Amino acid sequence: MNHKNYKEKRKKSSEFKSRKEYLEHELSILNFRKWRINLPFRDYSIEIEDIAPGIAATIGKVVMVTAIVAALASQFGLSPEFVAENVRFELLIAGGFFVILFSAILNPNANLSGTHGPMLPLIPIIAAAGGHPLALGILIGVFGIALSITKGGSKLMNLTGIGVRGGLLIYLGAMGLLSQIDKLEGWAANAGQSTISFVIIGLIILIYAYLARIGKRWVAIPLCSTIAGLVAYFMGAHFEFTTAPGLPHMNPMWWWGETTGWQMGWPKIEHYIAVIPFAILAVVMWSPDFLGHRVFQEINYPKGSEKVLMDVDDTMSIASVRQIVGSFLGGGNIASSWGTYMIPAAIAKRPIPGGALITAILCVLASVFGYPMDLAMWEPVLRVALIVGVFLPLLEAGMQMVKKQKDSVSAGTCIFACAFVNPVFGWALAMLLDNMGLIGDRERAKGMSWKEKLVIPGVMFVVCVVSLALAGQLPGIPRLL
Questions:
Q1: Sign of the torsion angle spanned by Cα atoms 383, 389, 393, 394
Q2: What are the φ/ψ torsions at residue 44 (nearest 5 degrees)?
Q3: DSSP for 171-191?
Q4: How many angstroms separate the CA atoms of 206 and 208, rounded?
Q5: CA quadruple 351, 354, 360, 363: dihedral positive or negative?
Q6: Over the stretch 297-351, which tens digit does the pLDDT of each residue have?
């Protein structure tokens, strides 16, 4: 039995024929100490490839938290200055504390806690229902901890067949890709310079194709975002720095005051009741989100690197704790697995902790200096970052998974159901039909127990449908609560 530790197993990159072989060897020798101290250069390395996911994650964080906080702020009549202040606060909470403490030190098998983008369309409904950001954050955290303790996240992941996984990734990738292109074109048209979006998208297609050809897609976000920003600027697009250096308010009492911060005071019992269906739905939506990120590692990592794959339940636990603490402190973020970090990190064949440290440092620097936030939030930069760093890779990964005719039926059903309602409904329905053997691989279904075939997927489907109905997300059916 081999008892050598990481430092003893490690070899120099010069001993390998290619950089790819070196990175795959690194993945194969890692064995993190879960819920114990893991240190850089003792338990894992930091490589140049970690810089790209770090930059991608920081850009993604600024973009997504801004979107969530701005949507909440607009419902409560708060100013753009408040949004910038809260985003800055969230960057410190995420980067300066949670990323370093958990994903880089205590549990490198847990992905970073990012932002729950699919909840964005629900924010106006949450506000109209009398929701309170702190009440929503606390309940999401409580429900998430309950699911992680029962190992529900990993169980649902294992019960999701290949075809359903592929279909979910294809849908998320395609819809996100089209959405970002539309938003970039809309920005250019509103500025009276439609040619800019055409030139940027054309260049990005060529650059991304070349990076894929030479196996360097992990640099796509920083390279393509930089090129998009430079092209837009030199073609006459307006840009200016507006967020000056500084620190946000650190006192929760200020954020949850009656006349300061959110101007809502501390939540009351009616606030908790109002957000129950939305909190349930947020946690239900975690499973397909986490699944997609784990699948990305499985596709890009070599055999023998199972010990460094993302642990779904641990990621869920940390995201839940991060949600409760962040909301209590005054942050407006809604937490989830950090996709703009995991996807480029997996493509670069890097484990979680090295890039996590770089992400934490960049988030803190962006928060303190302010000006990098302006760059990350500029339309050509953020749209291209999301296109090449999230949605194109999702689409590609889904297409790679659907290799057999029986899997294509499951994938098609999943895409159809996603388009009919949303990805949560599509995933739950397709998983139930697939496990019952009504679509997809019937031999797989025959090897399952009734609990795996019907009980767990059936309960999940009912929970999803009821939560969607309560939140008013079923087409043609008014909100039930």
A1: negative
A2: -165, 165
A3: HHHHHHHHHHHHHHHHHHHHT
A4: 6
A5: negative
A6: 998 999 999 999 999 999 999 999 999 999 999 999 999 999 889 989 999 999 9
Helices (H), 1-132: 6-9, 19-29, 51-75, 80-93, 123-128
Q: Is 412 left (phi over 0), alpha (psi -120 to 50) or beta?
A: alpha
Helix, strand, coil shares, percent, the chain, to 5: 70, 0, 25
φ/ψ of 58, rounded to 5, equals -65, -45
**Identity of the amino acid at 422:** N
Distances (CA, A) of 308 to 149, 181, 290, 388, 403: 21, 34, 15, 25, 26
Other CB atoms within 10 Å distance of the CB of residue 477:
10
As a whole number of angstroms, the distance between CA 286 and CA 316 comes to: 8
Q: CA 91: distance to chain centroid?
A: 15
What is the SS3 assignment for 12? coil
How far apart CA 305 and CA 23 sit, in angstroms, is 11
Is 309:301 a contact under the CB 8 Å cutoff?
Answer: yes
Task: Write out the two tokens for 87.
Answer: 């985003």
Q: What is the pLDDT of residue 3?
A: 65
Q: Give the whole-angstrom CA distance, residue 94 versus residue 96.
A: 6
**Cβ atoms within 10 Å, residue 421:** 17
Q: What is the pLDDT of residue 1?
A: 46
| 386 C-beta neighbours (distance < 10 Å), count | 27
Task: Retrieve residue 298's tokens.
Answer: 């499985």
